[in-house]
Give the backbone structure.
Amino acid sequence: MSAADFDIRVAAVRDAWLGRSWTVEDDVTRATMRRIAAMLDMDPDAFPRGAEVPAHWFSLFCAESARQGEIGADGHPAPGVVLPPIPLARRMGAGRRVQLHGGFRVGEVLSKRAEVAAIEPKQARTGTICVLTMRHSFSVGDRPVAVDEFDAVYREAVPPGTASPVNTGTPAPTDAAWSVQRFLPSTLVFRYSAITWNAHRIHYDADYTRDVEGYPATVQNGGLTMQLLLDAAVAQAAGQRLDSFTARLTRPISVGDTVTLAGHAVADGAMAAWVAGQDGALCAQMELRFA
């Protein structure tokens, strides 16, 4: 596809989809909380009815539920079913900007209003890409909980047998005030994918991941990476309420790796945190603000 044809097709998708919105509701049940807590290696009975849920756990709810017949070859819903039919074959999460407004409790109904906020074609080091920004506004009734602007990057498919282009690696900071090592077993990725209803095959199908997407091994779920880093950072800021955060994924992590979650101490209500891969490369970074 020529650059001109690509721009024309993206413009048509933007005209049809920009500003489109829909709503997904989810019951915050004890059964779901038991599964989330167990997945995060916590006491499954720690969240009885009426208990407050950590505010930054909102993204574990209100998953899109495409029918099985609507799933594409990569495991995502087929283009145009849930997300715009952007004319590039591969999609991965890239970053988030989140504002937290208040918590929610077990037994409440959490609602997500999803909106197509931006569709931007770009030329990157790895070739033609397109950045889709989704704005997800969460609430309980009329009470706002969080607004999450999430960026997904679409890129061209690599030829069969070709390695997917990957950032060679910027070294992670070495001046951490705290750090936690986390092993990322396939069982953890499976449980997170089940809770968030994510069937992207790069997280569990090694043959597909190598032969089609060009990665050397199954790929860690970026949402899980952010979840683990958020939990670790919030634990280090005990007694302070998380107000907002921004996050960016900079390098894929393989399932089965051991990573280091690390960060600085809170200073003037702010904290920088990051994920270092097994080779010390920076894989994700986050800026958090506490009230």
User: Anything to note?
Assistant: Helices lie at 3-17, 30-39, 186-195, 206-213, 222-236. The first strand starts at residue 21 and ends at 27. The mean pLDDT is 93.
